[in-house]
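User: Teach me something about this protein's shape.
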Amino acid sequence: MPNYRKAIAEEIDVLKSFIFKHGLNPWNYLPKDGIDKTFSLLANNHGEALVACEGESIIGLAIFFYPSALPENFQQYTDSEPAVYIAEVVVHGDYSGRGIGSKLLNKIITKAPDIGASKLLLDRHEENAASAGMMRKAGFVEISTFSDLERRHFGSRKTTVLSFDL
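Assistant: First, the predicted structure itself:
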């Protein structure tokens, strides 16, 4: 049974490696400079990372930004409500399909009111069935799909934005 906790600053290099090892696939857009920016926001207290562990091994990771750091392109989906943006959810390949990603999302949902959020937002490749299932299981609903040629280089090349209202 995995345990879940907040990541610590000393784990940044391990977490970056984890993202690139277990998150890289044709559906995900993971440029190194984007991941560096994500961890810079965390280091400057604009968000948090949660990890799922089995013993001492990290088997899942979720990164979210506080409402004050909501990316500008997601503000159109907030209805002027404070929103958390979930930047990454990555599960070790050997542990996929066990509900770890959904549990990480639920941990963020539970924490969101404590940081002043009334909504959560995230996005995925339109055709990423594994992410779609994880997000649906956690209660997220699709609110928009659009052509995203800069970030999507596979399949439909579209991004779907999802929301969870608290």
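Now, about its shape. The mean pLDDT is 96. The chain has one domain: 3-165. If you'd like, I can walk through any region in more detail.
User: That's plenty for now, thanks!
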